[in-house]
Amino acid sequence: MPDDLENWHLVEGYLAVIVIVAVVALLAAGGLFLLFRPGRKAPPPVKPPEAPPLPEEERRPAAAEEAEGATTTLPPPTKPAEPAVVKPEIEVPPPSAGRMVRLRSRLARSQSTLGRGLLELLSRDRLDDEVWDEIEERLITADVGVAPTRAIVEELRTKVKVLGSRTPEEVRGLLREQLLIQINPDLDRTLHVQKHGERPAVALIVGVNGTGKTTTTGKLARVLIGDGKKVVLGAADTFRAAAADQLQTWGERVGADTVRGPEGGDPASVAFDAVARGMEEKVDVVIVDTAGRLHTKTGLMDELGKVKRVIEKKATVDEVLLVLDATTGQNGMRQAQVFAEVVNITGIALTKLDGTAKGGIVISVQRELGVPVKLVGLGEGPDDLAPFDPEVFVDAILGE
């Protein structure tokens, strides 16, 4: 009996081992079946996203680096070069000597109508009161002025009675003589622009806007530089927007410095600074362009007086040139009188004399103010400002 029981236990042990092996085998077979089941494919591997292609400029340096086997730093992008400021070429103006002779033809074209008309009247066989009245009217129309006209006519009547018969040459000589007497060739027409030791001469340019004041200032700088002088310009017309720019352009063309201030600033301060610059640079002449308009006439006149006084704290004002438009006639005369009351005018610059047959204003303005015409504008060109020559002027009026 014990042997049978022992055998039964052995059988049970074998059966348990067999069951375990069978279970393991079944599990293994099931796993293999699931792994290799037909129709089930493994998911494809996920590809990393492709980087966008580099621009051609960046690919080339990278390729070069790989070939050289070295790492370099790309240079920073270069800034575009700024355009160079081109300064205007400095011009060399012609000297002032003989300018009016060279420009005589321009003056003759506009003035010879007056001269021819007077010569024709004086050459008539019979000079009655009606002819003399016509001669007088022509002279007054030419802005000679009433008093000078009467003086000329009276002298001509006397000389004609003495001569009796008259040739064209004699008539021309008589008229030339009387016109020269009224213009007075003996007046000092010199521009006083000589240095005082280390101090420059100072010229103050005055006049109302529209007469060509700033342009005359620029042209005067050319006249003086053409005569070998060194010039500084003062843009003291701070009340007209374009005046300082205009004057600076004139200066740059001939190599003259321009001192300017803020628009609407103190004109006297600009004038003072211009004189200081002139002393510092040891120039010969400082030319100061002043305002021709303020809110009231009184304000303008007061400002001009202040400019002159401020300049005189540092230097002497050698010339005060009044710029007049020859086409304005008697209106210009009234302007001249107002300015003469405030500043001591030393000379007149008569502009636009080439475009009018009213050249007699030369006579009337000198007679009224007691100062000479020193400069005349005979055209729009930069070198058409000329020192006034009475004989050339009268000969241009009368023609050849």
Show the helix and strand layout:
Layout: H1 2-35, H2 56-68, H3 99-102, H4 104-122, H5 129-141, H6 146-163, H7 168-183, E1 201-206, H8 213-226, E2 231-236, H9 243-254, E3 257-259, H10 267-280, E4 285-290, H11 297-311, E5 317-325, H12 330-342, E6 347-351, H13 361-369, E7 373-377, E8 385-387, H14 390-398
Parallel strand pairs: 1-4, 1-5, 2-3, 2-4, 5-6, 6-7
Antiparallel strand pairs: 7-8
Helix pairs in contact: 4-5, 4-14, 5-6, 6-7, 7-14, 8-9, 10-11, 12-13
Can I get a quick summary?
This protein has 400 residues and is α/β, with parallel strands linked by helices. It is 51% helix and 11% strand.
Quickly list its features.
51% helix; 8-stranded mixed beta sheet; 400 residues; alpha/beta
Describe the structure.
It is a single chain. The protein is built from 14 helices and eight strands. By secondary structure, it is an alpha/beta fold. Strands 3-2-4-1-5-6-7-8 form an eight-stranded mixed sheet, sandwiched between helices. Helix 4 runs antiparallel to helix 5, helix 5 (129-141) runs antiparallel to helix 6 and helix 6 (146-163) runs antiparallel to helix 7 (168-183). The longest helix has 34 residues, at 2-35. Residues 39-43 and 57-71 have low confidence and may be disordered.
